Amino acid sequence: MVLQVKTSTYEAKTQEIARQLLGATQENRSFFASLRDQMRWDDKLLAWAMSNPGLRVQLFRFIDTLPALHSKAEIAAHLQEYLGDESVELPAALKGMLNFANPDSVPGQVAATTVSTAVETLAHKYISGENIKQVIKTVERLRKEKMAFTIDLLGEAVITETEAQSYLERYLELISQLTEASKNWGTIAAIDEADGEQLAKVQVSVKLTAFYSQFDPLDAKGSEEKVSDRIRILLRRAKELGAAIHFDMEQYAYKDLTLNILQKILLEDEFRQRTDIGITIQAYLRDSEQDARNAIAWLKQRGYPLTIRLVKGAYWDQETIKAAQKHWPQPVFNDKAATDANFEAITQILLENHQYVYSAIGSHNVRSQALAIAIAETLQVPRRRFEMQVLYGMGDKLAKALVDRGYRVRVYCPYGDLLPGMAYLIRRLLENTANSSFLRQNLENRPVEELLAAPDVDLAHTKAHSPEAFPQGSRKEEKGSFGAADTDYAVEEERKEAARAFAGVRGELGRTYLPLINGEYVQTAEVIDSVNPSNFGEVIGKVGLISVEQAQQAMQAAKAAFPGWRRTPVKERAAILRRAGDLLEQRRAELSAWIVLEVGKPVKEADAEVSEAIDFCRYYADEMERLYQGINYDVAGETNRYIYQPRGIAVVISPWNFPLAIACGMTVAALVTGNCTLLKPAETSSVITAKLTEILLEAGIPKGVFQYVPGKGSQIGAYLVSHPDTHLIAFTGSQEVGCRIYAEAATLKPQQRHMKRVIAEMGGKNAIIVDESADLDQAVIGVVQSAFGYSGQKCSACSRVVVVEAIYDAFIHRLVEATKSLNIGEAELPSTQVGPVIDANARDRIREYIEKGKAESQVALELSAPTHGYFVGPVIFGEVPPHGTIAQQEIFGPVLAVIKAKDFAQALAIANDTDYALTGGLYSRTPSHIQQAQEEFEVGNLYINRNITGAVVARQPFGGFKLSGVGSKAGGPDYLLQFLEPRTITENIQRQGFAPIEGAE
What we know:
single chain; 1001 residues; eight-stranded parallel barrel; disordered N terminus
């Protein structure tokens, strides 16, 4: 069916109704004319935002920051910083107001008061009240205007279980107070009854994910259990009190799980006959039409109707950005016309199935509402079975016009504190001021024909042929393009694939993995067990460790293979890397399972590591082809060519914490540059590197060019580092071992005719600064992820957080509650966020540091942990002295030191006062502080307003300085240069005074 709505049988009637509605909304109004005549700053700010894109961006950023600013001087200073930006062309009135020399001055105070009051007034336009008493007053006014309501509770993001329980309790209280107040309300026929049926006077709208702080599609079963218990409590209480419940839809990642959970609960005997419950469908999603059809089929099976609220969708920017960053196809339509067309198509589907579903058409677009009325009137849809909805403060005149036509109108009324409500306010302002917004176009007096034209889109074609349309059963990016897409565990098939991979890997546990020397797997005298750190009784594999004699054989084989490998064309070497990347992608789920089981890394983080390994293969293949071109510096009569050649034999010593990605990255960098390579992995992760070996062999690496040489670091590692035929050592590990390698490599051995090159990444003591203007929701989530992801065992993990004094107490309270809410358990479990540490030595060393921390700081939180594996529960220390042991020494575990700083300048000084310089983070919304951190924060990788782990190849090349390491950044444009020797070749091309001169005849 081609859903080009302009050909619809309802079009003529739609146009007629739309013109009548538009006429009613445009009476007694000339928006811009009236603006010029009045002095209301809230209206002026909105008008300026519409006409000035640069001002719009900076103004909305300022509004986002406003909740964190606690004095007029702070507000004035931030006003100047945001609106004084070079990108902003200020209207004269605003320019004059911001022309103060000092934020503490009287003009500064006036500016702060004027703008903050204007923003508060704007917020009151879209937020129905700050407390229940104000909300009741608002809804009583709406009822006098014959409008029904649904109430949505605004607030901070739910990131702790305490907050999730509080969310439920606040809704129970809200319903209780509203229903109590409703006893005094008379019956209004237009909204309280329909077709002889009494309708609930009170309705609330809730967000499913807010009932469980760790809601995650990967843990679909666990999330469902936690959320369902709280939903049942809410539904039971609502029934007792006679209130209706509507479930909002949120981000795309949660959609399928949200619908699945609700459909299961609403088929339970206790709730099956309830018809006072609603769900939401977002028309900007490409798969929303199918969702609507599926919901109708489910409602037919259920036998009792529910409401489906149809909206356009509120997270377009967020969804688009996330998909681009993750290399996933876009879940949303890319242009508004397609969304409008899809909205109209779904409206038609819902209303044509009115015997099974109650429709709630949520839109401020006159045409969208007119079409719904045209269909409803043509099909004679009973009044109980559809209603129109608008957002509070957004479609007031349209709502009145619809009421005057006799339709039931429900106003969506958010309520809560104005400051936490700023995120909601910004979404409304974006909608009001966007060029494509119907409200804006109507205010600008666009021609009626243009405003009411049918969206000119062939939806069937758009869905089927868009390059962003989802491939069947997957959301992964097309193979071959750069940037491997992580697995999207919101897709049920991907979760099933992961489960199959674990089952397959478990069938292979306990196998023996032998070293690869000169193309052959060789027997060894010594074999060790590699165990599962989540359950150390489970052997993942048995690994053969080489002897010194075998290491010598490997060196000889590498030496013999080098001349042939260095002559292998770069194109062939790059092709082998790309094949390896493709094989890694094909075996993604299996490799993730090996990582989870051998080193205890939770599932999502293991999957991201496979992506990184794939990216290293493809990126370094591209980079070597770029470098192979060399550079010409020719002059008349002379050619000058700058080229690169391989160094010789590379020894790669890889760590256990990124057993696939780092081992792969260092190894393929050495190989693609033409060096023969010996890979000596950490003993605790040797099975995963055996799997990498299988892949490199299948990709076509010749005999002797790559060798897998597991062995004891103190014996085999030391032998390979000191060997005179070693040209280059690439190492990732501890500072102690790294410095020892660096010193040993500097010693010239007999018969050694070269200086050894050392690339060493040696860890960090990474700090995140939380500034006074930080978004605390964002900061707490980012710190928790950075500190406790993979139990704090990433090189980039946050082990110190430096918090400005003004927000220290509020921050540490939420940090502790958020950490308490994490699930600690076996890495394989989909619910796990904090798994084990790598082995008994690591566990015992971390426990020793915890005892030292207790002697010098205050324990803010110490969580217990399972005993059947190498577990250490997260520990947070507060009031830590900046020079204390746990603030200075690398612990490499789930231990976080929280340090208080007087102000931002002191916070930056504390963050920099360490031997390391690897990663750092800043949460701040103060432009001058962000600028200062960019210039002065001494780290190799600085992350602003996001977590500090998870560097992506090419996007965030990784590495630091000071005692964090030596060498250029992995995954960056300089990295391969370390594996190469540069050469310059100059040739005199004159013969007897003759040389070809370009351009001469």
